[in-house]
Amino acid sequence: MLRTLLLLLSLSAVSFAQLVEFNRPNLKWETFETENFVILYTEGLDEVAYLAADIAEEVHDPLCEIYDYYPDTKVSLIFSDEDDIANAGSYFQSNKIKFYATSMAWDFRGTHNWLRNVITHEYTHMIQLGSARKWRRNIPAFYVQALGYEPERRPDVLYGYPNALISWPLPSVTIPAWFAEGTAQYQFNGSGYDFWDSHRDMLLRQATLSNRLLTFEDMGFFGKTSLESEGVYNQGYALTKYIADHTGGAETLGKISRKMSSPLPVTLNDAIGSVTGKPGIEWYREWKSELELKYGAVKANLDPYFSKADTLEKKGFVGAYPRFSHDGSKLLFISNSGRDYFGQSSLYEYDVAKDSIVLLAPGVQGTATWLPDDRGVIFVRRSTANKEGALMHDLYYYDFAKKREWRLSAGLRAESADVSPDGKLLLFTINKAGQREIAIAPIPDLSRKPKRLLTEDDVILRFPSLPHEQYYIPRWSPDGKQIAVAHHLREGRSIRVYDFDSAQNTLTLAHEYEGKGAELRDPSWSADGKSLYVSYDESGIANIYRLDLESENLERLTVVLGGALYPDMNQNKLAYSEFCQDGFRICVLDSVIPVRVPRSSLDELGLDYLERVPHKDVALRGTPREAAPYTPRFESLYWFPRIAFDYNTFKPGTYLVLNDVLDKMTFIGGAAVNQKREYDLYGLVEYKQFYPTIFAEYFNIQRRLTSYFADSSRIVGEDDLGGVLTPVYDQYRIRYRYNLNEISVGLGIPIVGASNIKTRATYDQYVAHNRFDDETSVSLSYFRGWSWKTGYYTDARKPGLLTEISPSSGYRGYFEYTRANHDFIKDIEIGGDAVGLKEIYDPNNYNLFDLGFEKYLRSPIKDHSAELRFHGGLITEAVDPFFYQYAGGLPGMRGYSFYSLGGTRTAVGTLTYRFPLVKRAALGLWPFSVNRLYANVFADVGDAWVGDYKDRDVKKDVGAGLRMQLHSFYSYPTAISFDVAYGLDKFDVVEDDVTTTYGKELRYYLTVLFDFYTPIIPPARHPSSCGCSHCSHN
């Protein structure tokens, strides 16, 4: 019974299913309040916090007025700077927003005033989604849950093991992703912190012209490649802007959002129709038609002038940062070839003479630079920087002769490295406290692996910048006397050239070339040092130009339909990254000549692109405020009502969740009761102030059973059975009430990587209360004892679109050791020294070893995969069958009942082969959006036994199943699986003189959960690897 409740709780998506994360006890938090906000930030982010408070107060009233929604408490804005991650999440149910204090530098987006943009974006989420809420904020969702059971059970168990698990949400907010992100980018009339820039137009233009626009239904949810997910943002912004601009502006968006707050089921399509007189799908079709006409004309206009470049890498959608070797024979670049996400890029080398590409280093972000003699390259990788699990960009070196790499820095937060012409100095940017600064450090000895890694203490120059100022991709001049770098302060990018004084280690601004609010970026020096090759989007499409440093003249070198970035020139060969139909590609022009194209606006109003760039004169510093050390501040108490059906009974209940704002303390409770007065109680307390998570957990379960027995001492009649009189005995009943209690205390300890350790001490006591017809009762404690468990859990699956439905790379597994000192009732003593009844126990002291492992393999057939799974258990001593491990049912051999295969030793191996029936879909069956459908065939082999494995036959089964991946109400991932298994072997199990035959029959299993069920225990993951959040800015 307790095993069943644990199973359901572990599969719930309520936030109490906590996994171990890095708690960061090293961080010191400060806080202050304004009229409408509570600002919390880590030490060193004072300037960010001061300005953030001013920005938040500025946008509060305009947004609240549009949506006619005002938060019921002050909203907490939380800023941290321990990771090189540019992202934020609006937890609109909790009235808090979390920010990473890193400016976003992503090629799918333009460069905007990052702090003003991200605060306005996330606060728009807070207000807009709050206005669309269907009921009270402290009830985020209802959960519909159900359990189905196998008919077979042990004699000492009330019912069988689950063969059906259902947990499904009924959320308070049902806004599709495109509209949520569209409104967050539209913000409010006149905000100007976000606008339709050339990067957004680049993505939409290429998607339209290549017939790759997401459908209206497909725009409703994420769970896609980074390119397609950006389409949700991009198309969502464009369509939202189109609807707003053709109706009442932001006020229309407010009315649509409020329509979605109806407690009755309503789709956004209908809500748009109710407000505007035209349903959402009609707006989509009209918008799409206009895009095809507009962009078709752009393509026709540019077609005679398109650059004819060679494309190197056609896999993946990220090809960026090309860099020629000094002799021009090789070309470095990064690509996410074969991967699904933007951040999964690796470093490649293209051999010009051989026309071949080789992988140099996996997991590389940003630019890579050659040593002056081309014997090696220095690159940047985001890796774990300290024991607290912080993810930071650091420098690495790859040696061509030794064909190996080694790390050069630790926690330096270095990006975009470049080596000086004399090979003595490293130029890079440092990301910290919301800004990127120029930095210079000496290059260590690269002939061997360094004994000491570079840190900030080794930096000899750190060019100061204003709060929120950004520098990108600095480059040494050919003579090493100057540095060219892209610069951002308010909007867009410009190019700056600094003189470098090597004697004093100082930089002096020599020239600044304005981008005029657009993006003049990615400088690369010419061989003579008299000009720069740059990317510029003054026409609305980014192209490559030559910038003459003396005359400041710009000479256009490319004509592309998407956009061209990151130029690098060598021996009249120009390499650059071009956004094509399906992503960024590395392109090379063999000969470079200036081109002229008639100016043609891409804007539907016929205005020049530079005139459409907003220019806002905004404060660069915030109002200083007096802060105090953070003390725990708790959020509201959240209720998750539970509509549950358990063993043919209706069992309503609720989960309760109470967190402090920083999630350092968590209190969780759960309760459910049915008409038989059977109940489940659950409680969890977590404390995350130290490196390990300290937790305490409690379960209390009550079950009832009434049994009738014949009283042979009382004959109440006779039956005539074929002439033979048979006595009919009176009956008496016993009403059983079982009360199961378990309490645990333990630690969760994260390990750098994708692993963690959990250790816990547990005390159990199971009590049976027996009530007779004469209302006398007897209570017996039939099981009690302590156990100590320590487990190691790891998840090394390759992240990707199919990681959940059909993983094809990596592994996950666990190993647990349990020492148990348990007492199980053997008899009862009456009279003598006993007062009343006294339990007599048999000690069951044993060691339990439990191992689970899954290995995922790629099939030669595209999108097919195989999975090898092993699960084994060993109890070292002889124990009562009450403590047996089991090898059948849903978590084991599915061709047999869970309780049919039990013993002190278990071993089960499974081979599963999966293949797609529907690889990619966006089928709307409201409230579901179907994404993928896979089929699988499997075979299980194994057994459970006691003692030596003699006179037994290994059990085998085969089966097939379906897996469907979909979204419910747009935002909630839903995984449905259905398996059918057939036991190939037939055998009998005798328990309490009852013989049950197993095998040679079909068995069925159904799960409807937030992820696909697996018996391999899920481990903790670093939060940045998680693809889902409440709302994310990036």
Plain-language structure description:
This protein is mainly beta and 1034 residues long. The chain folds into three domains: 35-137 and 172-295 and 619-624, Neutral Protease, domain 2, CATH 1.10.390.10; 308-594, TolB, C-terminal domain (Neuraminidase), CATH 2.120.10; 796-1018, membrane protein fhac: a member of the omp85/tpsb transporter family (Porin, Beta Barrel). 13% of the residues lie in helices and 45% in strands. It has ten helices and 54 strands. The chain has an 18-stranded mixed barrel. Strands 4-5-3-2-1-32 form a six-stranded mixed sheet, with helices on one face. Strands 8-31-30-29 form a four-stranded antiparallel sheet. A hairpin with a 2-residue loop joins strand 29 (564-570) and strand 30 (573-580). Helix 3 crosses helix 4 and helix 7 (250-259) crosses helix 8 (268-276). Residues 10-20, 601-606 and 1018-1034 have low confidence and may be disordered.
Brief characterization of the structure:
The protein contains ten helices and 54 strands. The chain has 1034 residues and is mostly beta strands.
Task: Give the helices and strands, then pairings.
Layout: H1 2-10, E1 29-33, E2 37-42, H2 46-67, E3 75-80, E4 88-91, E5 96-100, H3 114-131, E6 141-149, E7 162-171, H4 177-186, H5 198-209, H6 226-245, H7 250-259, H8 268-276, H9 280-302, E8 310-311, E9 319-324, E10 330-335, E11 346-351, E12 356-361, E13 369-370, E14 376-384, E15 391-399, E16 404-407, E17 414-419, E18 425-432, E19 435-442, E20 461-463, E21 470-476, E22 482-488, E23 494-501, E24 506-513, E25 520-525, E26 531-536, E27 543-548, E28 554-556, E29 564-570, E30 573-580, E31 583-589, H10 609-612, E32 628-629, E33 638-646, E34 649-650, E35 653-659, E36 665-673, E37 679-687, E38 693-721, E39 724-751, E40 755-772, E41 777-795, E42 811-830, E43 837-858, E44 865-875, E45 885-886, E46 902-903, E47 905-918, E48 923-925, E49 928-945, E50 955-968, E51 972-983, E52 987-991, E53 994-998, E54 1002-1009
Parallel strand pairs: 2-3, 3-5, 6-33, 7-54
Antiparallel strand pairs: 1-2, 1-32, 4-5, 6-7, 8-31, 9-10, 10-11, 11-12, 13-14, 14-15, 15-16, 17-18, 18-19, 19-20, 21-22, 22-23, 23-24, 25-26, 26-27, 27-28, 29-30, 30-31, 33-34, 33-35, 35-36, 36-37, 37-38, 38-39, 39-40, 40-41, 41-42, 42-43, 43-44, 44-47, 45-46, 47-49, 48-49, 49-50, 50-51, 51-54, ...
Helix pairs in contact: 2-3, 3-4, 4-6, 6-7, 7-8
